[in-house]
Amino acid sequence: MTTTTTTPLTFEDWFALTQLYADYSSAVDSGHWDLWPEFFTDDCIYRLQPRENHERGFPLATLAFTSKGMLKDRVYGIQETLFHDPYYQRHVVGAPVLREVEDGRWRCEANYAVFRTKLSDASTVFNTGRYLDVVVRTPAGLKFASRECIYDSEMIPNSIIYPI
């Protein structure tokens, strides 16, 4: 793939972008779910979709949210209404690859692996894939305008409760 650059990326921008990715992973691994929506713009898109559907252009996604309010509803569901066997998760995320750079807006992607540990079990690979992101500059810092989590396997264990 090629990278289109219309504006040079400064070291400060690169550092802020990689910090956004690191902070996101730390937040969703911490179990402090209220932190998760704050990484997104108000009119964001968050989708969790199998690779096959994405590559074929099929719209069906496992999870699809179209606003920060919907992310907050998901957080409420995780904390108050969903019944599930508790587990920890740990993200390992590659450095973001810039695909397009414009003034204050970056289209990038990064590979990820999420490990899951149930309280009385060994850790297992839970989900792997890549993030397809649009990151924008806001007065509050960099935020995800769009995050598509394209997972590799068509099979997901049990269910996905926590954000990827």
Output the number of helix runs: 3
What structural category characterises the helix and strand content? Answer: alpha+beta
State the low-pLDDT regions, or none: none
Q: Distance between termini?
A: 24 Å
Largest sheet: 8 strands, mixed
State mean pLDDT (0 to 100 scale): 92
Q: Over the alpha carbons, how many angstroms does the gyration radius reach? A: 16 Å
What are the secondary-structure elements, in order, as H or E? Answer: EHEHEHEEEEE
Task: Walk me through what this model shows.
- By secondary structure, the protein is of the alpha+beta class.
- It has helices at 11-30, 51-56, 68-81; strands spanning 4-5, 40-50, 63-65, 87-93, 97-102, 105-118, 124-138, 141-151.
- Strands 1, 2, 3, 4, 5, 6, 7 and 8 form an eight-stranded mixed beta sheet that branches.
- A hairpin with a 2-residue loop joins β7 (124-138) and β8 (141-151).
- The radius of gyration is 16 Å and the shape is globular.
- 21% of the residues are buried.
